[in-house]
Amino acid sequence: MRTLVSxxxxxxxxxxxxxxxxxxxxxxxxxxxxxxxxxxxxxxxxLVGSDxxxxxxxxxxxxxxxxxxRLPPHGSTHFPVGTMIVKVRDEGPGLEPENHxxxxxxxxxxxxxAVGWEWFDIxxxxxxxxxxxxxxxxxxxxxxxYRTMGGETATNATxxxxxxxxxxxxxxxxxxxxxxxxxxx
Length: 185
Description:
six-stranded antiparallel beta sheet, 6 strands
């Protein structure tokens, strides 16, 4: 009996360790794991400039690059579930690198914001070459440093968060990058 229980546990754990990424043909939602962000710098990328993103404290000045794990099919009106986009602000004089991400989780996730999208902040902790998820969810955690339009530190989910700024791109499935405009892809 003990052998049977041990074998069953090993099979279950083995299945968890053999995580299979989202298959777009299944129509299921996608929950990004930390390992899904590994090697994101090998994805298709675009330089997006160095000016601060107007009206936000979330993306200050500094050279930025956007990475996407896969482009949507031509003619798409939405990014497919499983789309992962990472925006990196490179180091510069007085600047720390920043890595913000949005992942199309799908379903009714984030129904009151950027529908279907989950927000992430990732980092390379202590020089580790593997990306670490710092936070994830509907909004950054309180005290994370995002700012409201007026410059005060955001303290709730209704001001100064990813959803409030990305709402301006609702006609492009909440993606605010000129290289990733659905009608042009």
